[in-house]
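[agent] plan:
  1. take the single chain provided in the ticket
  2. run structure prediction with default settings
  3. attach structure tokens to the ticket
  4. add a short note for the reviewer (M.T.)
[agent] executing step 1
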Amino acid sequence: KEKFEEGMEAKDKECKAVAEKLERTRLINSKRERAMKEELRCLREETTSLREMLSDVQSEVNRMKAKDERIGAIEETLSRNSICCHETLSSLKCLLDEAKRMQAPRSDIDVKADVCSLEEGRHGG
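[agent] step 2 finished; step 3 output follows
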């Protein structure tokens, strides 16, 4: 009978030790679970923040692209206008050169006669 009681006490101690170990394990797992849930919450917040930042960056990139496109269009217009102005200036230079060639050299007497006739025309006589 004593051996049986000793065996039962040993089994009882063993069961209590296992129960205590199980309780400690449960507490540890519970703490780990809370820590993991907190980490997951932090990661979700960080993900949300990163998504907002990405959205802001994408908006800025789109704004910069639109600005670049406008600048490109302006540069293209300026380039076309520059070419057009250069062509116009070249045409004007050609016209001036042609006008100079067409003018015959005139003597001082001819110029004075022209001035006199202009003045007579103004004075009526």
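[agent] step 4 note for reviewer: The chain has a mean pLDDT of 85.
[agent] ticket updated
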